[in-house]
Design brief:
- There is one protein chain.
- With about 150 residues, the chain is mainly β.
- Helix content is about 10%, strand content about 35%.
- The protein has one helix and eight strands.
Length: about 150
């Protein structure tokens, strides 16, 4: 089910020692999601680029490692409170005998605060890193006046 690690997998120079554990990782994620709720960042599609999220200058900043991805082919959208980053890394040569880089479609989803204004989201691509800035909504506060009356309470 999860793949077996054999003695051959530990051979010197072997890079596939943990091959087959991706399913175990997904199962553990699903177990924790069921107990503790969904994580903020969810991978979807053929492969998932590495993503960091930080709060900086009143904005949620999402950085995705996308070397080799044409930034013109990246689609960023907001639906409800889910920010999606989609695209595809296309292989230059199909006949590679050994490959560590993942190719194909990707999609990453990041939960953003309710009330995020999609018109204020910006993105830039520098040196293979996509940075999406999502301004955080300002909290709405309202002062409630207290009515002063005289007499006995009702």
């Amino acid at each position: 089910m999860y793949g077996l690690v054999t003695r051959r997998s530990f051979a010197p120079g072997s890079r596939s020692m943990f091959r087959g554990f991706e399913g175990l990782h997904r199962d553990i994620d699903q177990l924790f999601d069921g107990v503790f709720g969904s994580r903020d960042v969810a991978p979807v599609a053929d492969w998932a680029p590495r993503v960091d999220t930080v709060i900086k200058d009143d904005a949620l900043v999402v950085r995705a490692d996308l070397p080799g991805v044409d930034p013109k082919e990246v689609d960023i959208s907001l639906e409800g409170n889910i920010l999606s980053v989609r695209g595809e890394r296309k292989a230059e040569k199909e006949d590679a005998s050994y490959r560590e880089v993942s190719y194909g479609r990707f999609e990453r989803r990041v939960r953003v605060p309710n009330g995020t204004d999609p018109e204020k989201i910006s993105a830039k691509y520098t040196n293979g890193v996509l940075e999406v800035s999502v301004p955080l909504p300002k909290p709405v506060t309202r002062k409630v006046p207290v009515e002063v009356t005289t007499g006995a309470p009702a």
